[in-house]
Amino acid sequence: xxxxxxxxCDDDQGILDVLQMLLESEGFTVFTEINSTNLIKxxxxxxxDLILLDLWMPLLSGDQVLKAIRSTQEIKDLPVIVLSAxxxxxxxxxxxxxxxxxxxxxxxxxxxxxxNGLLVLK
Length: 122
Fold this sequence. Notes:
Blueprint: E1 5-9, H1 13-25, E2 29-33, H2 39-46, E3 50-54, H3 62-70, E4 80-84, H4 89-96, E5 100-103, H5 108-121
Parallel strand pairs: 1-2, 1-3, 3-4, 4-5
Keywords: Phosphoprotein, Two-component regulatory system
Organism: Chryseobacterium takakiae
Domain Response regulatory: 5-119
């Protein structure tokens, strides 16, 4: 049982629910945030080990949030996996500093293996 903490940020409650269920069944502690503008604050509060971040969100897009994370000293090395249905999502994610990228609709095993791969490095 690993008690690594994962924060999922997506503007779709259904996706948050699915990922929370999946990741908790894998033994992770999961925090969800539906409003991207709250994410940085929540990272400081919950101190997750890894973030799953949707790219296309209202108000503040995933790449904007990610750039903010990468430019904040205390959290700049946090592993962030970007989720996106966009065709060029992986390029946008890479440019913003994502650790990894998962296309939507996503394969749950793929997400878990990428998370585990990044957390092993920590």
